[in-house]
Write a structure and sequence with these properties.
Low-confidence stretches: 1-29, 96-100
Structural class: alpha+beta
Distance between the termini: 60 Å
CATH superfamily of the largest domain: Peptidoglycan recognition protein-like
Radius of gyration: 25 Å
Largest sheet: 6 strands, mixed
Oligomer: single chain
Strand content: 15-25%
Mean pLDDT: 90
CATH architecture of the largest domain: 3-Layer(aba) Sandwich
Number of helices: 13
Shape: globular
Strand order of the largest sheet: 5-11-10-13-9-14
CATH topology of the largest domain: Lysozyme-like
Number of strands: 28
Helix content: 10-25%
CATH class of the largest domain: Alpha Beta
């Protein structure tokens, strides 16, 4: 079925649903004033009573969508608003950072560059317009449902109640919850419902991003999984996927085929981890909606990644076996040693990610990390924005997703590897760890260049040249060769650190801490860091500075006859004497020579040169082990 056919079918189903058996609820009766920090809890109770939805079911569904947050009234990465994630694409619109740069997703200097054109986004699925149904059911305008948290909760409760009525049962809410996911297949709907009822069984208490204390008491609730068969959803074949049990996965393969121009696409066959160890998992966002993204990855002339994750329900599609190398990170060294995960959404246009997607993503990453012995830390679980350019010319073309609104601290909590790990006060190494909800940088450019973004939580902190809030930001000569300061633009990573990244301490003053960053001393509030334990690198004695690289390629002598060596090109930065940088480990030098369609001609070139991965700026980088000393961070 084509994308347009799928879209037309969903639109027809949505239009039919609007006219079939939907009950318009009256506005809720005004409740007595609740304490300022309990109004959200009272809103859930009122909406549950009005529409006949069990309050704990309503709370658990909302938690899986938004963790009960308001998110400053901004849309999620899949056009969802408010605690109940009511979707309204007309208002949220679309946008893409991928169009801003000229990144070659393969990033292999040994082959012609890849710059496939991206078609205009197709029509979004009808499931991204649930706000219209909620407005009809509640008699409330779409604008009010987007901007008023209490009315948003009413809209979500009305949707759940309508789904329950259509099932004609009151014994179990399993089917209604599964349908709320918006999934088109039974496996994804069931996985969402299972996560909701699992959350309900465990119970949750948290304070939301706008200071509301909400509690979901632990309780066992009846689950009738047989209701799935009455939802009319397709069944998914998950026989050939690499996924853990308990989440929804399907296989939608990316093509490996020859092209008329003599090239081939859209990935390279390999035999990892036997041929090369997999060291990284890269977190991306798709910059497109689900159907369009699946169409692109199945195009042999386009690029590729290993997995896509759907926003509304966390459903996963695997495209490339993890043994093979996908074209996703813009750096061939990183590509050949990584697995790429694309998360549905837009890094700036929509500014938050659903809990459902965070949860399935973390389960997949935990599974892949265990399978490949990848450390669960920010030196190995990277954002696309942390991947370095392969040479100086490529530094400004690299992408910046998943963006500053990806909640790395929460993500690592879900991974079972919290960021507030070991470290003693006064350590020479710190982990960036701001409070996501209250850390609200004044970004610009989410809607248009220079326009302030809505104030909301972020994992990012900016470094300044002096220990004061009005001091200039640091310069990044890779992004601005003239040495001008970085900006607060949402896509400008030149003076930015994110939760989980580790940096060597360069000084302290009052309530400020300085760290070494791109050869400079950068200051940030001490409340945003925690002491860490680990190793740092510094130039060997007698060296004024050492080169910094974007790859860890072998020396020319390591290449077999007939295989031209790849140049080892330093980046435009250097690591000066007297400075220290956090080590991500000592690694060997490798280059995966894969320039033909026939995988029997592919070879892994390994050299004697050894490198140390470092956290050099916002991105990681590599220095030659012979150039530096590796020291404990006392």
């Amino acid at each position: 079925m084509s994308r347009r056919t799928r879209t037309a079918r969903r639109t027809l189903l949505a239009a039919t649903a609007l006219t079939a058996g939907l009950l318009a609820g009256a506005p809720a009766t005004a409740a007595p004033a609740a304490p300022a920090d309990q109004q959200r809890q009272r809103a859930f109770a009122a909406a549950a009573g009005e529409f006949g939805v069990p309050e704990n079911v309503l709370l658990a569904v909302s938690y899986l969508e938004s963790r009960w947050d308001y998110n400053a009234g901004t849309p999620s990465t899949s056009a969802g608003y408010g605690p109940m994630h009511l979707t309204d694409l007309r208002e949220a619109g679309t946008g893409t950072h991928h169009d801003e740069g000229a990144e070659d997703a393969r990033g292999d200097a040994g082959r012609p560059e890849l710059h496939p054109s991206t078609p205009e986004p197709g029509l979004p699925p009808a499931s991204l317009q649930t706000i219209d149904v909620a407005a009809r059911l509640t008699g409330t305008t779409a604008d009010t449902l987007r901007t008023d948290p209490a009315q948003n909760i009413r809209g979500g409760a009305a949707l759940l109640a309508s789904y329950q009525r259509e099932l004609g049962t009151s014994d179990s809410w399993y089917g209604a919850v599964a349908r709320y996911s918006g999934a088109g297949d039974t496996a994804a709907a069931a996985a969402f419902a299972d996560e909701v009822f699992g959350t309900l069984a465990e119970g949750v208490t948290r304070t939301t991003d706008d200071g509301q204390l909400v509690r979901l008491a632990a309780a066992e609730v009846a689950q009738d999984r047989a209701q799935l068969d009455r939802l009319g959803l397709r069944r998914t074949d998950s026989a050939n996927v690499e996924c853990p049990r308990g989440i929804s996965c399907e296989s939608i393969p990316a093509p490996y085929e020859e092209l008329p121009d003599g090239g081939y696409g859209n990935h390279d066959l390999a035999n990892r981890p036997q041929s090369q160890k997999i060291d990284y998992i890269i977190i991306h966002d798709t910059e497109g909606y689900w159907d369009d993204v699946l169409d692109l990855v199945q195009d042999p002339t386009y690029v590729s990644w290993h997995y896509s994750l759907r926003s509304a329900d966390g459903h996963i599609a695997q495209h490339v076996p993890t043994k093979d190398v996908a074209y996703h990170a813009g750096n061939w060294y990183v590509n050949s040693k990584s697995i790429g995960l694309e998360h549905e959404g837009f890094a700036a246009k929509g500014t938050w990610y659903t809990e459902a997607m965070y949860r399935t993503s973390s389960k997949l990453v935990r599974y892949l990390a265990a399978k490949n012995r990848i450390p669960l830390d920010r030196a190995h679980i990277l954002g696309h924005d942390n991947v370095p350019g392969i040479n100086p010319a490529k530094v400004p073309t690299m992408h910046w997703d998943p963006g500053p609104y990806w909640d790395w601290s929460h993500y690592f909590d879900l991974l079972g590897a919290p960021l507030n790990g070991p470290g003693r006060p006064g350590s020479g190494l710190v982990t960036i760890n701001p409070d996501f909800a209250t850390n609200q940088p004044t970004f610009t450019g989410c809607e248009s260049a220079g326009t302030p973004c809505p104030a909301r939580g972020s994992a990012s902190v900016h470094l300044r040249t002096e220990p004061r809030e009005d001091a200039p930001l640091l310069a990044d000569i890779g992004l601005r060769p003239d040495g001008s300061p970085s900006t607060m633009g949402v896509s400008d990573i030149g003076s930015r650190v994110d939760a989980g990244q580790r940096y060597a301490v360069a000084g302290t003053r009052s309530d400020w801490t300085a760290v070494w960053y791109l050869g400079q001393r950068g200051w940030l509030p001490s409340r945003a860091v925690k002491p860490a334990f680990g190793m740092v690198v510094t130039p060997k004695q007698g060296a004024a500075s050492v080169p910094v690289y974007g790859t860890a390629y072998p020396e020319p002598e390591a290449y077999p006859e007939g295989r031209p060596p790849l140049p080892i090109v330093p980046l435009q930065y250097s690591l000066p004497a007297g400075q220290r940088y956090s080590s991500g480990g000592v690694i060997g030098s490798e280059y995966y020579y894969a320039t033909t369609f026939d995988p029997s001609q592919h070879v892994v070139v390994r050299g004697k040169t050894r490198y140390v991965q470092i956290q050099f700026g916002h991105r990681v980088a590599y220095v030659k082990a012979d150039d530096v000393r590796l020291l404990p961070a006392f």
